[in-house]
Amino acid sequence: MARNEVKWGAILSYVLIIANSLYGLVIMPFVLGTIGESEYGVYKTIGSLTATVAVMELGLGSTMQRFLAKYRAEKDETKCQNFSAMCIIQALILCVGVFLVGVALFFTLEPTYGKTFTAAEMTRAKQIFVLLIFHVVLHFFENVFFGIIAGYNKFIFSNTAKLCALVGKILLLLTVLPLARNAVTIVAISLGIEVVTLTAEYLFVTRAIHHKIKLHFWDKAVFKESFVYTIMLFVQSLIIQFNGNVDNIVIGAVIGTAAVTVYSFALQIFNMYEQCATAISGVVLPSITNQIHQGATPRDLENTVIKFGRAQWAVLGAALGGFVCLGQEFFGLWLGAGFEDCYYLALILMIPVTVPLIVNVCLAILKARNLMKFRTISLAYAAGLNVILTVVGTHFFGYWAAAVGTAASTVVGGILSMNIYYHVKLKMNMFRIYGRILHRITPCIVVACAVTVALNYLTDGSGWMPFILKAGAFICVYGVAMLLFGLTSAEKSGILRKRVKK
Q: Which among 147, 365, 455, 502 would be 20 to 30 A from 290, CA to CA?
């Protein structure tokens, strides 16, 4: 039953990624055309600012998931109930902190953006900011309930709920936004969806899986252990959020909203690309926690990383190869003139992050073993490098400096530092891991790219139909190559066994 939850949870994660991609590719241009470039730039700028407040959640959802999985492996129901109540209390305390920080940030909006925002844009920015702060507060509790659901391996429900929330948001945007034509409507819709999602998850926890949230006593030992884990996740989230949003914040303050709009679409493609790697890694923490609890060796963990890493490289490698061949044409068709730089900005961001993404199951191992300190330090100095390059470089090179800063921080913090740590501390042979992950799949990607590049030179005309045909050719060539050569015998046998069972 747990295996089915993980398998279908991963499948639903990919469905959710596709839905999010369609949302980004179809709905966001619709939003841009409906509310205008200026309003959209304000929305993205304030969204990036409030995202830095969201990290005050302290990683409670991930902490809940990790410790609940641990206590369930130990079959200790009392600790499950008690820890859930402790997390809810912590969430309540953190909400007070969010309001205080929100009030402080509210009064910094005019000094920060007064020179680049018009009076009307500043008014809208303040309205958006207030609504987003309320959204952050609700999301704190939603994360805790999601952690409970994930701790029970109920990924089918959790991902289905996310999918329904996204579909509901799309329908509301399509029907309501043309009537209101402002960014406040977008945020109000997101806030309403968050209320519905939180209610659904609460009912599922209490009525479907019958999990009791009951404080038996304040467990100081558990609180101390979980607090250290939570603080590490918090600092990491803080750095990641800051690292991901500092570009838009700096670009908005130095250049203006128009540049933010261009850069945000490159970031949108980059974020969609990153999400492709979370479909699997997002559902393996309870399984890896149980695996480590049963005494898994470094070699066992290597094989786990290779197994999931090959699946991730099969998806990410194809996505990256297809984007290299067709991305420039895609941006021209999707957004039109004025967004040509998005293709190169996206490539600068996507290429280096691929390396840590294909082994990001290692992060689940770190979480399961409570070894988050080094990654926190690594992310911190990488983010510092990004800030320096972005703040200094943006004045001279515009948003190109922001993209290069983010890429450089990934190379230093995500590739060099973390792979050395995995190799030394976790005793995992990273050369073997990367070699096995890239084996056989990489030539399939190269062949598909070569055929697509040839089609680019052989076909005339532009438009969506030629683009779709070339994209279809890439997928077909890659799929055939994977079946003939890319998949190992064991992987083919596994797929066949699943077919026979069905």
A: 502
- Give the integer Cα–Cα distance in Å for 137 and 101: 12
CB 230 within 8 A of CB 63: yes
> When comparing pLDDT for 14 and 148, which is higher?
148
Residue 479, burial from CB neighbour count under 10 angstroms (0-12, 13-18, 19+): middle
Alpha helices in 25-182 (DSSP H): 28-35, 37-54, 60-73, 77-106, 109-113, 119-151, 155-180
Inter-residue contact 98 to 137 (CB < 8 Å): yes
Rounded-to-integer distance, Cα 339 and Cα 32, Å = 13
| Nearest-angstrom CA–CA distance, 193 and 162 | 10
Record the pTM. Answer: 0.71
473, amino acid identity: A
Q: What is the dihedral of CA 269, 237, 411, 312, to 10 degrees?
A: -60
H or E stretch at 500: helix 489-501
Q: Which residue has the higher pLDDT, 147 or 231?
A: 147
DSSP state letters, 331-396: HHHHH-TT-THHHHHHHHHHHHHHHHHTTTHHHHHHHHTT--HHHHHHHHHHHHHHHHHHHHHHHH
CA distances from 147 to 108, 387, 467 (A): 33, 32, 41
Question: What integer best gives the mean pLDDT of the chain?
Answer: 86
Distance separating alpha carbons of residues 449 and 452, to the nearest angstrom: 5
